[in-house]
Amino acid sequence: MYPNDRVATFIAQNFIPVKIHIKQQPDTFKRFGVQWTPTLLTLDSSGVERYRFEGFLPVTDFLAQLALGLGHTAFAHEQWREAEERFRSIVRDFPETDAAPEALYWAGVSRYKGGDRAALADTAKQFQTSYAATSWAKKASVWASR
Amino acid sequence: MDITWSNNVDQALAEAKASGRALFLDFNAAPL
Questions:
Q1: What per-residue confidence (pLDDT) applies to A75?
Q2: Is residue A14 part of a domain?
Q3: Which of A53, A128, B20, B28 is least enclosed by beta carbons within 10 angstroms?
Q4: In what order do the strands lie in the sheet with A39-43?
Q5: Average pLDDT per run of 10 along chain A, which is 146 residues long?
Q6: Which residues share a beta bridge with A17?
Q7: Which of A69, A61, A54, A58 is nearest to A17 (CA)?
Q8: How many domains does chain A divide into?
Q9: Hey, of A16, A20, A52, which one would you mutate to test binding to chain B, going by the most B CBs within 10 A of its CB?
Q10: ipTM over 0.90 threshold
Q11: What is the structure's pLDDT at B2?
């Protein structure tokens, strides 16, 4: 299923991996509200879902989505510094993916939540030159005048 | 690196709680 070594290594190093087959465990599909395959979920250590995505993706996009899951998990636990670093690593390592502008947005929010009051305005400025055509840039644009 | 998959969600949840690690759940329909 994961022939790419980068993907396999990332999963093995960062998660407890569970594979659920639709024919073998249909009740588990219902339990988590999964209606399509593949659906990939990130749960925190308490079992709370923090991120999900559906569909097959190229390796870099897949890795970026996995990293988003870890970022959102840290964010949900108010681990602002770790969350910011997780999100920034996506922008740095996978800048061409759809996950990158989302990660830039949440990196700014994480920095703001961590106490940096200039973080939102800084992020809005970054969106003026990076990922300007994305919905994430629109969402960040309201921060420009802060 | 090989992945050691579990197919037991509840067992994996217990392991996650004990270790503090996140879980990755792959719902799939790959040929058996």
A1: 98
A2: yes
A3: B20
A4: A15-21, B22-28, A39-43, A49-54
A5: 85 97 97 98 98 97 98 98 98 98 98 98 97 98 88
A6: B24
A7: A69
A8: 1
A9: A16
A10: yes
A11: 81
